[in-house]
Amino acid sequence: MAPPAAIESYPETDTSSFTIPDRFTLQQVAKRRAASGKLVATVAAVADVDAFKGRTQHLHKGKARRWDHRLSPESRSRKGNSLKGAAGLLKTPGLISLGGGLPSADYFPFDELSIKVPEIGRWSDKEVHDHGKVLTAGKHDQAEGKSHFDIATAFQYGQGHGAAQFLRWLIEHTEIVHNPPYQDWSCTMTSGSTSATDMAFRMFCKAGDWIMTEQFTFPTMIETVRPMGVRVAGIPMDEYGLCPKQMDQILSNWDERERCGPKPFLLYIVPTGQNPTGATQPVQRRREVYAVAKKHDLYILEDEPYYFLQMQPYTGPNAPDVPPPASHEEFLRSLVPSYLSMDVDGRVMRLDSFSKVIAPGSRVGWITASEQICERFRNHTDTSTQQPSGISQLVLFKLLEEHWGHSGYLDWLIHMRMEYTGRRNTILDACERYLPKDIVSWVPPMAGMFHWMEIDFTRHPEYPQMSMDDIEDQLFLNNVEHKTLLMKGSWFYAESDVEKHKMYFRATYAAARTDQIEEAIRRFGASVRECFGLAALTNGANGTNGTNGTNGTNGTH
Amino acid sequence: MAPPAAIESYPETDTSSFTIPDRFTLQQVAKRRAASGKLVATVAAVADVDAFKGRTQHLHKGKARRWDHRLSPESRSRKGNSLKGAAGLLKTPGLISLGGGLPSADYFPFDELSIKVPEIGRWSDKEVHDHGKVLTAGKHDQAEGKSHFDIATAFQYGQGHGAAQFLRWLIEHTEIVHNPPYQDWSCTMTSGSTSATDMAFRMFCKAGDWIMTEQFTFPTMIETVRPMGVRVAGIPMDEYGLCPKQMDQILSNWDERERCGPKPFLLYIVPTGQNPTGATQPVQRRREVYAVAKKHDLYILEDEPYYFLQMQPYTGPNAPDVPPPASHEEFLRSLVPSYLSMDVDGRVMRLDSFSKVIAPGSRVGWITASEQICERFRNHTDTSTQQPSGISQLVLFKLLEEHWGHSGYLDWLIHMRMEYTGRRNTILDACERYLPKDIVSWVPPMAGMFHWMEIDFTRHPEYPQMSMDDIEDQLFLNNVEHKTLLMKGSWFYAESDVEKHKMYFRATYAAARTDQIEEAIRRFGASVRECFGLAALTNGANGTNGTNGTNGTNGTH
Q1: What distance in Å separates the CA atoms of residue B215 and residue B222, rounded to the nearest whole number?
Q2: pLDDT band at B45, cuts 50/70/90?
Q3: Extended beta strands in A139-288, E state
Q4: In chain A, what residues touch B412 (CB-CB under 8 Å)?
């Protein structure tokens, strides 16, 4: 990505020796729950987040910093709902309310909702179809004592933070995985991370501002923020993701007049399995980035849809696979620590999503941030999305709270880890077999859905008469001629007008069947050879026809 | 509301004589569907809206006006998704895509989703519980030819307009009810009308702008738009809703310097069962408002959550009820024509919602507007909410498309009409019985959830030593002492700093059980009498103790 000289890195990316102090265990959460008694949350109940976290269990930590100086005029000026004062009176015993305009649940035309889902460990489509567990929510399960969440509540209006019943589960999950190192952290649900990103930008940015992100990034993020009049500065990356020293330099040398805007303070990053580069920042890199964030008083949006698509190490085509994590603890320790887990200042808003690990169509995610930030976010939610779909929340609640629990969900995530490891290995093995390695090079991805390949366009027979852009175009269209679709790297530049020196293609191993992944890479290899004037592989693959050697993993570039 | 002298109205509010020209019938829609063949829409399919409307059936109409001059810089600057160009290539036969980052449906841990819902005409909770129909969606129903919508598609990422399968139903429903009188109308789904309102304001407004609305309005709307730096001008109302002549005067006399902002062009209205006043604009009022909109080149946001809570006429406590509509046609003719149905210019964005007639927790609604406006809206959706929950969409699809159909849904809406008529009659009968009518007066609501009562504060024994605001406060708190909660009218002013001459309370008859509604109004009557120093009702109700006569409906004020 950046020229090799710019790599600010360290050979070891192994993080298993990094101990998160004071990790919350499933047992601690279970014990606290047992002590707290039954959760009673009726229609549109306001959640008591501190109770869900354990009122005393975070008191030894410091408090988050205040971010008033970073909030946009829009966010600062949001007032609370004027009718909520009346809501406080609803607890008056014997009160009959003709106040709030909620329809009666009598008029929800649903008596039951059921889903058929995997028993723990029996994950395959066929096993679920043949032996899945059916979970049923009734209309009045709460009144009948059958559940603490039902259709009458879930299908009704709710609070901006989502239903207390499911929010508790999310808070506990966050505590188990990240245990934020400050006292007043909180969670609130989102209608998916794209919606949360849109709201976060409106919370921190105003027209004329700059924000920072990785030099290659998710185009939707750019398309979200640009219409707000906000400009995006792309920070150079290496194979370990965003380069903190270069970010420090950019910030230290920021010229407001030249840039026509103030020095940025908002950093949007995808630290794990980054889209499109697949890069995963090791823990040391994260600490360095966080240190630069402290130095320049940055606020960080940590967008982590791929966090649980961290995979087993890639061992190469001819070596045995690494066995799956032997326990939940080993699994959790294998995960790169999040920014949230090292955020002593409360300067991180972490965006979590179910889109990559349960189903994108749920449009349910959540953020974790300091209570000040969560409160502003909820306030915006109350006047925009209101809450994620209650139907989605009920489905997720039945699966995650009432069926799998935290433990079963970690089992599912380990299953996902192994499935993605298999898919990633398939595409890398196919690349080893079929791609001309003097032209195409890559770093094996450690997380996420994306395999990012650099193309040495200087080897094209018509270069330099033909420009890099034209070669990229030619190869893209030639791939389609060969019936395979990969994304152009140039579509992912954070700054479209930046001078480009490298050429990339992005392939995803998430969607296609594994036999199709291999075939698509075979076609891609043939397309590259054709474009670059190399002989076709006559014998099917590298190593059998002598064009390329296959010697384990393809080195870093 | 406005002083009687300002009423711009007409005695007849009956609209049954108004014929919507060229109404689409259920039969026409069914015939078109049969001719168009099977709908095939796979993952994230782009909907062919014109096919759903009938490609030739609207060609005789004129085209909508363009609204470029009304779009905000934010909306104008939105670009299409840069990766969508590649999506066009996905139709290449035999192509294997490693392009889009969609997770495989193999990893959605759901095999089936079922809902138990009413058979047509057997609407009660008990009937549904005992004899409801169970509708089931499988994971691969589309591939297996069982349905044209399934878990594999609905739980996946989708288009900003929502799933084509369900969008078709919404477009047909819109055509049957409103049949917009211009050619290039379109629909796109929303994550509920609050979200759609937030997006619409960002589409048309920028900081420093003014918008217009009814002088009393839904506080969330104000709280949505004010943080954007947009100010709200409240237009006087009478019992028929917003007063067009006064709006015309305000616009004609707009002084940019005095108001520190340009003349407004965006009108937000709730024409039917308005919140909080319960006012419903008759068709003649709507035509006059539309004429003023043409004169001043306004764009109208028609927010209509209560449209299908139009009720049967109120006949008074001692007269027989009006029988339900005898047919779908009679029902549709009984509805006040929407602005959309008279919108020859395409200057209306109509916001529809399932919150009041199916379930608020679905967070699914839709807008209808010209294709230009829908395109800008979808573009914003792609970078914010993405789409409403696919789980909600699948639930609604199974119920509305596959089970009830358009016909069964109209039957359900007639049921809702009769239920709300009963509730409204309950509260009005209770008001007749228990309220001191020389102090409390009202107009029987024709639609919606709200009963709006004027309090003659000048009859308070301490007036004028005690201010109107203090009397309102006293009565509100005294109601709570009497264990009944009504909302203060002053919470609903569009302009909080306007001089107030009248005092109101809002009661909803939507939520409480009917016996509780009656009891709450009895308590409210006792509370008013206490505050205003009247003797308590000794014998239970008006007409039995001689304090007030009960002579049919309470007249207009």
Answers
A1: 11
A2: confident
A3: 185-190, 210-214, 231-235, 237-238, 241-242, 266-269
A4: 109
Q: Angle CA(A293)–CA(A299)–CA(A301) in degrees, nearest 5? A: 110
Chain B nearest-CA residue for A79: B223
Which residues in B lie closer than 8 A to residue A79 (C-beta atoms)? Answer: 223, 226
Tell me which DSSP letter residue A263 carries.
Answer: P
- Contact across the interface for A219 and B81, Cβ inside 8 Å: yes
Copy the structure tokens of residue A489: 């790297």
Residues of A within 8 A of B484 (CB-CB) are: 95-98
For residue A360, what is the DSSP state? G
Domain A24-71+160-416 classified CATH 3.40.640.10?
yes
Q: For A480, which of B77, B89, B358 is closest by C-beta distance?
A: B89
Count the alpha carbons within 13 Å of A494 in the hemisphere toward its beta carbon. 23
B233 CB-near residues (< 8 Å, 6+ apart): B210, B211, B212, B213, B250, B264, B494, B495
Q: Hey, where are the domains in chain A?
A: 24-71+160-416, 422-531
Give chain B positions within 8 Å (CB) of A382: 220, 223
Q: Which residue does chain B place closest to A130, by CA atoms?
A: B111
Residues A109 and B400: their CA atoms lie apart, in Å, by 11
Segment-wise mean pLDDT, segments of 10 residues, chain A, 557 residues: 45 45 80 88 86 88 97 93 73 91 95 98 97 98 97 95 96 96 97 98 98 96 96 97 98 97 98 98 97 98 98 90 94 96 97 98 98 97 96 98 97 98 97 97 98 98 97 97 96 91 97 95 98 88 51 39
Chain A hits for B134, Cβ within 8 Å: 112
| Pairing state between β B504-508 and B450-455 | antiparallel
SS3 assignment, position A505 = strand
Please name the member of B219, B362, B419 whose beta carbon is closest to the beta carbon of A83. B219
Q: What architecture is the A422-531 domain classified under in CATH?
A: Alpha-Beta Complex (3.90)
Residues of chain A with Cβ-Cβ distance to B104 below 8 Å are: 510-511
> Could B361 and A157 be called an inter-chain contact, meaning their C-beta atoms sit closer than 8 Å?
yes
Window from A349-358, A397-406, B78-87, B103-112 with minimum mean pLDDT:
B78-87
- Give every strand in the sheet of A487-488, ordered side by side: A440-442, A450-455, A504-508, A487-488
For chain A, say whether B208 makes contact (Cβ under 8 Å): no
**Token digits of residue B398:** 């199974």
Contact A95 B386 (CB under 8 A): no
HSE-up of residue B284 (Cα within 13 Å, Cβ side): 12
Residue B502 tokens, joined? 């009248």
Distance to chain B for A344, nearest Cα, Å = 30
Task: For CA atoms B10, B13, B15, B17, give the dihedral sign.
Answer: negative
- Beta-carbon contacts of residue A56 (< 8 Å; ≥ 6 apart): none
Chain A residue with the nearest C-alpha to that of B404: A109
Please, what sign has the CA dihedral across residues A79, A82, A87, A89?
positive
CB–CB of B270/B158 below 8 Å? Answer: no
Provide ipTM, 2 decimals: 0.94
User: pLDDT tens, A347-405?
Assistant: 999 999 999 999 999 999 999 999 999 999 999 999 999 999 999 999 999 999 999 99
- Portion 96-155 of B in contact with A at CB < 8 A: 96-104, 106-118, 123, 125, 128-129, 132, 134, 139, 154-155
Residue type (1 letter), B98:
L
Fold entry, domain B4-78+158-310+329-388: Aspartate Aminotransferase; domain 2 (3.40.640)
In this structure, whether the domain defined by B435-531 belongs to CATH 3.90.1150.10 is answered with yes
For B376, the token pair is 């800008």
Ranges of H-type helices in B141-273: 151-154, 164-177, 193-204, 219-225, 244-252, 256-259
